[in-house]
Design the sequence.
């Protein structure tokens, strides 16, 4: 996690016009306009928002409102925000789960209001086809009803239509839909020229299939070929669902039962079929530490016990004693992380332990000062940043960057203030790096830090969010943020179904884990530092800089144009 970009001199950035800033705000890249501030927002914030949009849209990351960026913003698109809790794994498959799903698989829908430009029979047929896109790869079924309560209500509306998200006429926003936690309804702009099996107008089937992905719990994807990409691509007569979409919907609902081997989607362990909440974590979600194991499991430590997380919350059979699984490891751990060779490091007080899986790896514990020179005792949290592979230790209001390839491993410019990273709390309890994002936990809330923009994400619901609901599957807990944002309740339309909404366990996806090919950590008897890898030893001796990811280099180059002091005004 590098420092915030600084002031590099004269700025070449021009503030985008008010329409572009409204666009960035509308789709989650900028915060909503605050009437009390007069719409003033720093140019630094706008710059990072443009970079984030460019990265999501697959554009050249410049941080400036260039022609390519402006053209992308002018495309017809879905009205759902791009940033609503999506996670990425940094690889080619980037399906995004919003965080909620339907508990039942037999869903109903009705078309409460039809478009003016198409006959009802044609609309019914294309809407059914759009739902079938998703039922082809899952056990979901969709039944149309003409009246009564349904899971998903579909309407064609113009302008302001009662939900606070008015349509904008032809072009622009084509439709929007609500995630299961908000009710799942889908609205289409009746000002559009909707068409059936035609290159003319806007193809209803393709737009509807996209919107129903949101109704089922999928966020926008940054894979251009994916149906869940936000931008309308035009009529495709031979439309096929992209693998990215298939992986996403099956991560939520599982593969079709008669085709379990047909699509390889790694499934996490499911939680207890009884649906019982964990009495400890749901009562007090403050934790000691969280970490991902080399096997891809996410563990929570609290006191003398630990839990394993799943897509739905907590796996059955937990909590368990830490000492029963990690022999020799005490309770009340301060922090933990797994390095790129798969070895896990635990920290408590002035000591640390190293494990391979759940087996202690040598003569431990050892002093932190021996294996991690320059790092203080009694740390709060530790993470490995995705951009450069360096290790970040946090304590109180400060952080230290530890680089195994550098001598000394901690530069003299550290420690630095955590406040350098916008929105990250001091005195945190735990930190976890997962699929391109860094999560910070403090008390009963968590913050999602965007490793591309170096700040806590602007999202809906806003951060910090309630850890109990989003990570531990505590359905009785608050679903909103610490600001007590009201969430739309979802109750089953069938009393026998005992509720139809199932939380997806937070902002983590599958437990796939890529160790990479960066060499193994080995103990260097000639050094006092623990983390020396076979691949970075040469660079450590030669003074070469560590290897950055391709994406981070692009951001670093772009950052040279930044000037923080200017402001823009959203009107």
Sequence:
């Amino acid at each position: 996690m590098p420092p915030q970009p600084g002031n590099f001199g004269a700025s070449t950035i021009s503030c985008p016009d008010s329409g572009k800033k409204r666009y960035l705000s509308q789709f989650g890249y900028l915060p909503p306009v605050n009437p009390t501030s007069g719409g003033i927002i720093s140019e630094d914030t706008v710059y990072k928002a443009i970079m984030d949009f460019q990265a999501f849209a697959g554009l050249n990351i410049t941080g400036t409102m260039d022609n390519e960026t402006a053209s992308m913003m002018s495309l017809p698109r879905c009205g759902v925000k791009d940033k609503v809790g999506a996670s990425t794994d940094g690889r080619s498959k980037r399906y995004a789960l919003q965080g909620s799903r339907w508990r039942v698989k037999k869903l109903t829908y009705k078309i409460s209001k039809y478009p003016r430009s198409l006959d009802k029979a044609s609309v019914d047929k294309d809407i059914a086809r759009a739902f079938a896109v998703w039922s082809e790869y899952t056990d979901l079924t969709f039944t149309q009803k003409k009246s009564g309560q349904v899971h998903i209500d579909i309407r064609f509306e113009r302008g302001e239509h009662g939900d606070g998200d008015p349509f904008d006429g032809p072009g622009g926003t084509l439709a929007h839909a609500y995630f299961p936690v908000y009710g799942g309804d889908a609205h289409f702009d009746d000002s559009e020229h909707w068409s059936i099996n035609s290159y003319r107008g806007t193809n209803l089937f393709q737009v509807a299939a996209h919107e129903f992905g949101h109704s089922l719990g999928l966020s926008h994807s940054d894979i251009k070929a994916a149906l869940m990409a936000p931008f309308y691509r035009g009529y495709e007569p031979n439309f096929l669902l992209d693998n990215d979409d298939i992986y996403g919907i099956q991560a939520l609902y599982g593969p079709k039962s008669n085709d379990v081997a047909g699509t390889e989607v790694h499934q996490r362990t499911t939680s207890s079929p009884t649906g019982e909440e964990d009495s400890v974590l749901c009562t007090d979600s403050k934790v000691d530490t969280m970490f991902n194991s080399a096997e891809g499991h996410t563990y929570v430590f609290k006191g003398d016990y630990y839990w394993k997380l799943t897509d739905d919350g907590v796996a059955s059979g937990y909590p368990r004693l830490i000492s029963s699984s990690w022999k020799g490891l005490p309770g009340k751990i301060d922090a933990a992380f797994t390095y790129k060779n798969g070895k896990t490091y635990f920290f408590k007080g002035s000591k640390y332990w190293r494990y391979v899986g759940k087996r202690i790896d040598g003569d431990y514990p050892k002093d932190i000062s021996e294996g991690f020179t320059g790092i203080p005792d009694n740390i709060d949290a530790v993470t490995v940043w995705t951009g450069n592979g360096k290790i970040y230790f946090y304590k109180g209001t400060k952080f230290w960057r530890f680089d195994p390839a550098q001598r000394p491993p901690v530069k003299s410019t550290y420690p630095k203030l955590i406040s350098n990273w916008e929105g990250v709390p001091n005195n945190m309890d735990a930190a976890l790096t997962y699929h391109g994002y860094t999560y910070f936990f403090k008390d009963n809330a968590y913050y999602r830090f965007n490793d591309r923009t170096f700040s806590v994400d602007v999202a809906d619901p806003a951060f910090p969010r309630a850890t109990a609901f989003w990570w531990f599957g505590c359905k009785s807990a608050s679903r909103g943020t610490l600001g007590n944002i009201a969430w739309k309740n979802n109750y089953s339309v069938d009393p026998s179904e005992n509720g139809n909404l199932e939380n997806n366990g937070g902002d983590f996806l599958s437990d796939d884990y890529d160790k990479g090919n960066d060499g193994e950590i080995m103990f260097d008897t000639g050094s006092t530092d623990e983390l020396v890898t076979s691949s970075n030893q040469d660079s450590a001796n030669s003074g070469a800089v560590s290897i950055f990811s391709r994406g981070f280099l692009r951001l670093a180059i772009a950052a040279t144009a930044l000037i923080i002091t200017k402001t823009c005004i959203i009107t």
Notes: The CA atoms of residues 140 and 395 lie 47 Å apart.
